Amino acid sequence: MISYKTLEDISLTNIHETFVDAFSDYQVKIDLPFWKFEDMLIRRGYDSAVSMGAFDKEKLVGFIINGLRTWKGKKTVYDTGTGVIKEHRKQGITTSMFEDAKEMLIENDVQCYLLEVIRTNTAAFELYKKQGFEIIRELECFHLNKDNCKVAANYKVEHAAFLTDEIWTEAMSLWDIEPSWQNSIDSVKAVKNNFVYSLVRDNYKIIGYGIADKKTGDVPQIAVHKDYRGKGIGKSILADLIKNTEAEKIAIINVDGSCKSMIETLEHWGFQHIVGQYEMILNL
User: Does residue 194 register a pLDDT over 80?
Assistant: First the structure.
């Protein structure tokens, strides 16, 4: 018989084991050694008290791993990963976990439940719709093999150890779109030492910046001031980020699908589209 409870007393090692098993046949290959899994949870605000597990006796066979933060002024939970191991699928476990999780979140005064789902993952999308989630926007994901890079640095790029609140305020003024949860300022700050921060200034004014994970090549944010675009500043920033990451690929995920200029720029730089997602929300 399957039982359900929070993940408060479950070790990250145990959760990681089940996570890898549950996603072993996922439609997008997930390379997630323990150190990367742990970083992901910290970055996304993991909170075991609002995360749910399904147990067959003492064995963890399913999970909803949630982060908890204030999002757009509301107490919000973000689904970092939902999965069930193969042997226990098609038993209604995911539905039961969501129903228990929603009750628990309402009791804890959580106002919103946020998640992303791959657009071609019809089964998951339909499940979320049945749970009451609605699409907010479409997000596009891209990657670039370093060997295929078409960019070079023409501008002087400086580095910061991390971004101060003052710099963040300047950076936000460059945005056309708001980053998704995992690319947000809070997510970057949660693991700030993981990143290289590349800045281009005109005198003292920041006119472009980019952030990349030094190990994985993930780029949560890159932007250029609208009055300085088309001059090669973005290329210079990307070239610098590439130079300062160990990974063979650079990934820019969750680009707002309505931002056509950003998508065209990425494609011009040689990025390949890998998957599209829906960002969905449930108001509790």
Answer: yes
Six token digits for residue 198: 């590349």
- Does an H or E element contain 36, and which? helix 34-43
What pTM was estimated for this model as a whole? 0.93
pLDDT tens per residue across span 245-254: 999 999 999 9
State the DSSP string of 100-114: HHHHHHHHTT--EEE
DSSP 8-class letter at 180: P
Determine the average pLDDT of the residues in 227-240.
94
Angle CA 117–118–124, to nearest 5 = 60
For residue 171, pLDDT over 90 is answered with yes
Distance, C-alpha 226 to centroid of its chain:
25
The encoded tokens of residue 267 equal 């494609």
Terminal C-alpha separation, the chain: 29
**Taking the alpha carbons of 274, 214, 16, 52 in that order, is the dihedral positive or negative?**
negative
All structural domains of the chain = 2-110 (3.40.630.30), 142-277 (3.40.630.30)
